[in-house]
Amino acid sequence: MKAVIRLHRRAFAAVFVMLAFLAGCSTPDRIILLPDPEGKVGAVIVRSATGEQTIDKAYAGVGVTKGGAIEKTMDSQSSVQARYAELLAARPPRPMTFTIFFLFDSATELAPESSATVKKLKAVLATWPAPQLVVVGHTDLAGSQEFNDRLSMQRAESVAAFLIKQGIPAREIETAGRGKREPLVPTADGVPNRMNRRAVITIQ
Amino acid sequence: MRLQAIKYALIFACGCMAVADALAVDTAGVVKTVKGTVEIERAGGSSGAAIGSEVYGSDRIVTGPESSVGITLRDTTQLSAGANTILDLNKFAFNTTTHDGVLDATIKRGSLAVISGKLAKANPDAVRFSTPTTTLGVRGTEFIIEVGGNGESAR
Fold first, then answer.
1. Number of other CB atoms surrounding residue A149 within 10 Å
2. Where are the domains of chain A?
3. Residues of A with CB below 8 A from B79's CB?
4. What ipTM was predicted for this assembly?
5. Distance (Å, whole) CA B57 – CA A99
6. Residue A43 pLDDT
């Protein structure tokens, strides 16, 4: 009985080794890190069943076999362009942002240069595929979170109303308030700052 | 008393409709580029993708030979899938106010290019891409994933 079990185990082991071998022969999964348009590079952490590898250089990558073995690779801009031209050509346009500032502490009075900004925005919009405008209001760090959440939402809605008046369809516009969570100019809590009283329009 | 109940019911119903309207915000993303044959599969059937098609948090995106698709998610994550690709969006949520949420996608076959968005910036651990062999943690970046061989069988 024992001998039979042992035999089975051996057979299993043999099959396992063969499968691992076959898996090793097939093309591995590949992951390649790219720089952004300014040349900045982030990082990707790749985990397989048996290992982990961090990639943090432009055009560096890994190949991962079915068995989980991770092998480092190094490509170049030209080899990536050649191999993935179609994939990269299919990428959506990169979102663009436009910032509208507010007069004094107002939730409704936009700075005078706003019309010129919207004119530029409309020119970009003209060629954008299925455009969506996300209008996010911001405040400075004076006042409570709840107060600023409300104020930032009012700012977003003021800008949205302004965009609609300039002929942009309301259904393309989404509004949100981010309160004092994302100041343009970092300050201590409680500090008023003109540059932080704004709404950012992202075309995406 | 009864009238009042009806009044409240009406107010409630209207409130619900307003919520239903706002649910357009619940889409995960929108198709921005299409080439060749691209299908979006979800419970209740599949449909051909076109520029402007909405993508939801549990959709499967399938591209044919010599085909590709580009999708921008609500947090500005930009995805493109190459030919013969199966991409499963497992989960997507994004709160524009707090930048909380989750993005979980699996590429079962083919190729995918990713430009990470606001989710990865605010909360890297909330973003996960996987292939049949690996799981990727993203630290604000651009990358390509190509699944080797024929990938995993579809289901």
1. 20
2. 26-89, 96-203
3. 92
4. 0.83
5. 30
6. 96
Amino acid at B155: R
DSSP state of A24: H
Among A118-127, A192-201, B10-19, B74-83, the range scoring the smallest mean pLDDT is B10-19
pLDDT the model gives residue A24: 45
Where residue B140 falls among pLDDT bands split at 50, 70, 90? confident
Tell me which fold the domain A96-203 belongs to: 60s Ribosomal Protein L30; Chain: A; (3.30.1330)
Cβ partners under 8 Å of residue A14, min gap 6: none
Q: What is the pLDDT of residue A25?
A: 52
Instruction: Give the separation between CA A156 and CA B154, rounded to whole angstroms.
Output: 43
Q: Which residues of chain A have pLDDT under 50?
A: 23-24
Q: What span, in angstroms and rounded, lies between the C-alpha atoms of B130 and B104?
A: 8
Domain ranges of chain B: 26-146
Angle at A10 between CA A7 and CA A16, to 5 degrees: 145
Token pair in block for residue A18: 């063969």
Q: Could you tell me if A119 and A174 are in contact, meaning their C-beta atoms sit under 8 angstroms apart? A: no
Give the minimum alpha-carbon distance from B56 to chain A in angstroms, rounded to a whole number: 16
Burial of residue A15 (CB within 10 Å: 0-12, 13-18, 19+) is exposed
The overall pTM is greater than 0.90: no
Contact B152, B134 (CB under 8 A): no
Query: Across-strand partners of B48?
Result: B39
Taking 50 as the threshold, does the pLDDT of residue B29 lie above it?
yes
Taking only residues 80 to 99 of chain B, the set having a beta carbon closer than 8 angstroms to any beta carbon of chain A reads 80-83, 96-99
Question: Using CB atoms and an 8 Å cut-off, which of residues 4-33 of chain B contact chain A?
Answer: 25, 30-33
Residue pair A156/A112 in contact (Cβ under 8 Å)? The answer is: no
Residue B26 pLDDT level (bands cut at 50, 70, 90): confident
- Sign, CA torsion B21/B27/B29/B35: negative
